[in-house]
C-alpha cells in the first residue's frame, strides 16, 4: 500500500475512533434535571471522598481560613473535575466549581470573583477534541489595580491553579502544561506582592512542577486534585477546616521534570524503561534524595500525630496518637529495605499501610499490620522467581517514605518465596470437547444442569468465532444507550442459545452512558486517600448505579503506574507504587462486584505513555515487569477476583499485549489463576506472538488467551476489519476448533460470573 493511502486510512481510522468514542465530546454534558438526578447518598459520599484525598503540602498556619478571601485563578470558575477521554466523559447531574463551593462557605471579595465569572463567560474554555485536549485554560490577566482593590477587603488570598490532561495525548514539559504558564506566574507574583497571606490550591490530576515554591513565598499549598462533581464543596470543607486534610501523596513531587528517571527515555516508538525498577520514590530515596520537593506518602493535617511502632516477627505493631487540637486521620506506612548484593534493591519499598479512624485530640488508635513473604522478595529469574535474598532486612514505619523510622531488622538465608515460569510460553493445545447429544441452553449451565463444556460442544464454527468478537460498534443497539461495547450474545444464534448481550461501560470516574451518573474524583485523588475501604464503598455505590442503568461490566479500575508525570492518563491511575495500586484496585473490584455486577481492570500492561500508544513498544527487564508493572495486577487479581480484564494497546518487549501468550496464558491465567474473561482494549492492531506460528491476528489473540476483540467489528475501513479465523480453522499450523471452544468456555466463564453474581 502506498504511503499516502496508508496515512489517509490511518487518519480516517483515528477520526472514526474519536467519533465512535463520543460524538459530542467537545461539549460538557450535564443532566438537565440537575441535582435532583443525583443518586441518593452519592453527593455526601463523594464530597467526603474528594476531601479525604486532598493533600496539604505546606501550611504555616494560614489554613484553615475563616475570614474573607480574595480568590484568584480561572480554575475557580472553570474547575477541572476530571481529565478528558473515556475515563472522564461522564454525563453528570451537576458539578460544583471551586468558586461555587467557596462562596457558600466563606465571604469572598465579590468584585474579584465576579470578574472571573464574567471572563469565563466571555472567553469560554475550548475543550479541543479527541487527543487534542487543552493542557490548561488561558488565565485572566490581573491588573495591579484589581489586586489592590481586593486587598482593601482582606489580607488573605487563595490562588487556584488547574491542569487538564487526557487520553491519547501526553502532557508537555513546558509552560502551560507541566510548568506554570507565564500568565499564571505573573498573577502569582502579583498576588504574593499584594497580599501578606497566600494559599495556593492545585486542581490537577497528577504531579506538576512546584519548583516555584522555592522562588515565591506562599503560605500554604493544598492539592485538591480533580475531585469529581463535588470538587468545590470538598475544597470549601478543607479550606474552612470542616475537614482536616488526610490525603498522602501517591507520587513523588521532584524539583524538576528532568529529575524523574523516565524523562531520559522520553519519545520514540521503543519506550525504553532504562530506569528499571527505580521508578518514583524507589529512585529518589535510593539515588537522588536531594531532588525531592515532597516525598511519596507525604501530607500534612490541621492536627499533629505521634506514631510509635515496633516490629516483631512479620508483624508491625503500632499506636497513633492525635497530639494536636483538632480531629484528624493519619496514614501509617511501612517500608522495607532489602539487601543489595548481586541485585540492587531500592532504599525503601512500601509493604503495608493503614489509615486510622477519625481521631479526636489525645485519642490513640492501636493496630497491627502483617507482612507476607512477598514483602521481602525480589525477583531474580536466575534463582527461579521471587526470592528472599540472603542478607539483612530493615523495616521502617512512619507517615511518609522520607521520615519513616527504622523499627526493626532481621537477617535471612536465601528462600525461594514464589517460583515463576520462564517468560517464553508455548500454549499446550487443548483437545476437542466431546459432543453432547443433549439440547442445552445457557440457563441449564447457569442452573448447574450442564457444564460449560457440554454447552459449547454444540456450537458451530461460526458461533465459536462470533463469540470471540464484541458487537461491531461502540454504543451497540444491543446494550444500554451510550455503552462502550457489548460482548457475549452478539449474534442472533448466540442469543438463541440463551447467551445475553453483556453491556460494558467506562470507567474509573463513573459510568459513561447517555444517561447521567455520578462523577467520581479522579483515581489519583482516590489513591491519595490511602483508604481501600472508602474506595470499596464508592465503587459499591457505582455498582448500584450500573445495575440501575443496565451496565454489567465497568471498564475499571484503570491501574497502570505513574511511571512518568507527563502521561496523559495518570489521572485515571492511582500511583507510582504498585503495592498501593494493587490494594486500591482490588478494593474497587470488590466494591463493584459486591452488588452483582462486574469489574474489568485495565490496561494489562505497561501502558504508561499515551503518545503512539497502539504502536509503542515498552522495553523492560523481567524484573521491572514482575516487581512493578505486573505487581498491582497480581494483587488485584488475587485479592479482588475480577470477572473480566482488559489488555493494553502497546507492545511489551516486542509483542502486543493482546497477542502476548507469555503474559496472558503464562502469568495471568497460569501463575495467578485468573479464570474470567480477557478482552482487548478498543480497536487493535494486527500482529502475533513468537510462539503462535502461523496463527496471526485473531488466531494469535485466541492462542494467547485474549478471548474477545473489542468492540468487535473493524473501522468502516476494511483494512481494519479483523476476522478470518474460520477460513483457516483446522488447517496445518492454524487455530483449531478445540482452541476456539476453549476460548468460548473462558468467555462464558466470565459471563457466568457476572450472571451468577447478579
Ligand atoms: C480506552 C479504554 C476504554 C475504551 C472504551 C479506549 O480508548 O483505552 O480504557 O475502556 O476505550 O471506551
Description:
Helices cover about 30% and strands about 15% of the residues. The strands form 8 sheets. It has a 5-stranded mixed β-sheet with strand order 1-5-4-3-2. A 4-stranded mixed β-sheet has the order 7-23-25-26, with no helix packed on it. Strands 12-11-16-17 form a 4-stranded antiparallel β-sheet, with no helix packed on it. The chain is globular and about 85 Å long. The model is unreliable at about 715-720 (pLDDT under 50). The protein is built from 21 helices and 28 strands. The chain has 3 domains: about 20-245, Glycoside hydrolase family 3 C-terminal domain (Rossmann fold, 3-Layer(aba) Sandwich), CATH 3.40.50; about 305-420, Immunoglobulin-like (Sandwich), CATH 2.60.40.10; about 440-515 and about 535-560 and about 575-755, TIM Barrel (Alpha-Beta Barrel), CATH 3.20.20.300. Helix 3 (about 100-105) packs across helix 7 and helix 14 packs parallel to helix 15. It is an alpha/beta fold. Beta-D-glucopyranose binds next to strand 27.
Q: TL;DR?
A:
The protein is of the alpha/beta class and 758 residues long. Helix content is 28%, strand content 17%.
Amino acid at each position: 500500500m502506498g504511503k499516502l493511502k496508508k496515512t489517509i486510512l490511518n487518519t480516517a481510522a483515528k477520526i472514526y475512533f474519536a467519533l465512535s468514542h463520543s460524538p459530542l465530546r467537545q461539549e460538557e454534558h450535564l443532566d438537565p434535571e440537575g441535582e435532583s438526578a443525583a443518586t441518593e447518598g452519592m453527593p455526601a459520599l463523594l464530597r467526603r471522598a474528594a476531601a479525604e484525598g486532598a493533600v496539604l503540602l505546606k501550611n504555616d498556619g494560614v489554613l484553615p481560613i475563616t475570614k474573607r478571601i480574595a480568590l484568584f485563578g480561572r480554575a475557580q470558575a472553570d474547575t477541572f473535575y476530571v481529565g478528558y477521554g473515556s475515563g472522564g466523559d461522564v454525563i453528570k447531574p451537576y458539578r460544583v466549581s471551586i468558586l461555587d463551593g467557596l462562596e457558600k462557605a466563606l465571604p469572598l471579595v465579590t468584585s474579584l470573583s465576579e470578574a472571573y465569572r464574567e471572563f469565563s463567560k466571555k472567553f469560554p474554555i475550548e475543550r479541543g477534541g479527541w487527543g487534542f485536549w487543552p493542557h490548561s485554560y488561558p488565565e485572566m490577566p490581573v491588573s495591579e489595580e484589581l489586586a489592590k482593590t481586593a486587598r482593601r477587603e482582606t489580607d488573605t488570598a487563595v490562588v487556584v491553579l488547574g491542569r487538564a490532561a487526557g487520553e491519547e495525548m501526553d502532557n508537555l514539559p513546558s509552560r502551560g502544561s507541566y510548568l506554570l504558564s507565564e500568565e499564571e506566574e505573573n498573577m502569582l507574583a502579583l498576588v504574593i506582592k499584594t497580599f501578606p497571606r497566600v494559599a495556593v490550591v492545585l486542581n490537577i490530576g497528577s504531579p506538576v512542577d512546584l519548583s516555584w515554591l522555592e522562588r515565591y513565598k506562599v503560605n500554604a499549598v493544598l492539592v485538591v486534585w480533580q475531585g469529581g462533581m463535588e470538587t468545590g464543596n470538598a475544597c470549601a470543607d478543607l479550606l474552612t477546616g470542616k475537614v482536616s486534610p488526610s490525603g498522602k501523596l501517591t507520587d513523588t513531587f521532584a524539583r524538576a521534570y528532568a529529575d524523574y528517571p523516565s524523562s531520559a527515555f522520553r519519545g520514540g516508538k521503543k519506550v525504553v524503561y532504562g530506569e528499571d525498577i527505580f521508578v518514583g520514590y524507589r529512585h529518589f530515596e535510593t539515588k537522588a534524595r536531594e531532588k525531592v520537593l515532597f516525598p511519596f506518602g507525604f501530607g500534612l493535617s490541621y492536627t499533629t500525630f505521634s506514631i510509635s511502632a515496633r516490629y516483631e516477627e512479620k508483624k508491625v505493631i503500632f499506636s497513633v496518637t492525635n497530639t494536636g487540637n483538632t480531629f484528624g486521620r493519619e496514614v501509617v506506612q511501612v517500608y522495607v529495605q532489602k539487601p543489595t548484593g548481586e541485585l540492587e534493591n531500592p532504599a525503601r519499598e512500601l509493604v503495608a499501610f493503614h489509615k486510622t479512624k477519625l481521631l479526636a485530640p489525645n485519642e490513640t488508635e492501636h493496630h497491627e499490620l502483617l507482612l507476607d513473604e512477598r514483602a521481602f522478595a525480589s525477583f531474580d529469574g536466575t534463582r527461579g522467581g521471587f526470592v528472599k535474598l540472603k542478607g539483612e532486612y530493615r523495616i521502617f514505619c512512619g507517615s511518609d517514605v522520607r521520615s519513616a523510622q527504622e523499627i526493626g531488622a532481621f537477617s535471612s538465608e536465601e528462600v525461594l518465596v514464589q517460583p515463576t515460569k520462564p517468560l517464553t510460553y508455548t500454549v499446550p493445545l487443548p483437545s476437542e470437547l466431546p459432543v453432547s447429544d443433549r439440547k442445552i441452553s445457557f440457563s441449564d449451565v447457569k442452573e448447574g444442569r450442564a457444564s460449560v463444556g457440554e454447552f459449547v460442544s454444540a456450537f458451530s464454527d461460526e458461533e465459536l468465532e462470533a463469540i470471540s468478537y464484541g458487537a461491531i460498534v461502540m454504543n451497540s443497539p444491543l446494550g444500554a444507550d451510550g455503552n462502550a461495547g457489548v460482548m457475549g450474545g452478539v449474534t442472533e444464534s448466540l442469543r438463541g442459545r440463551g447467551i445475553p448481550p453483556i453491556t460494558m461501560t467506562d470507567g474509573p470516574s463513573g459510568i459513561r452512558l447517555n444517561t447521567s451518573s455520578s462523577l467520581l474524583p479522579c483515581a489519583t485523588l482516590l489513591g491519595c486517600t490511602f483508604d481501600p475501604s472508602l474506595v470499596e464503598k464508592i465503587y459499591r455505590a457505582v455498582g448500584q448505579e450500573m445495575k440501575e442503568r443496565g451496565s454489567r461490566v465497568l471498564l475499571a479500575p484503570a491501574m497502570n503506574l505513574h511511571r512518568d508525570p507527563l502521561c496523559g492518563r495518570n489521572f485515571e491511575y492511582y500511583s507510582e507504587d504498585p503495592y498501593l495500586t494493587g490494594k486500591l484496585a482490588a478494593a474497587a473490584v470488590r466494591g463493584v462486584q459486591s452488588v452483582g455486577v462486574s469489574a474489568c481492570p485495565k490496561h494489562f500492561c505497561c501502558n504508561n505513555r499515551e503518545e503512539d500508544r497502539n504502536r509503542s513498544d515498552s522495553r523492560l527487564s523481567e524484573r521491572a515487569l514482575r516487581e512493578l508493572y505486573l505487581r498491582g495486577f497480581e494483587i488485584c487479581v488475587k485479592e479482588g477476583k475480577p470477572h473480566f480484564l482488559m489488555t493494553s494497546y502497546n507492545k511489551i518487549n516486542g509483542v502486543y499485549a493482546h497477542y502476548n501468550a507469555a503474559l496472558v496464558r503464562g502469568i495471568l491465567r497460569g501463575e495467578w489463576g485468573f479464570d474470567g474473561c480477557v478482552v482487548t482494549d478498543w480497536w487493535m492492531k494486527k500482529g502475533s506472538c513468537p510462539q503462535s506460528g502461523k496463527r496471526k491476528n485473531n488466531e494469535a489473540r485466541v492462542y494467547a488467551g485474549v478471548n474477545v476483540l473489542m468492540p468487535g467489528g473493524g473501522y468502516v475501513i476494511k483494512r481494519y476489519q479483523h476476522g478470518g479465523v474460520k477460513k483457516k480453522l483446522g488447517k496445518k499450523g492454524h487455530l483449531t476448533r478445540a482452541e476456539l471452544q476453549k476460548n468460548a468456555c473462558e468467555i462464558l466463564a466470565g459471563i457466568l460470573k457476572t450472571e451468577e453474581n447478579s
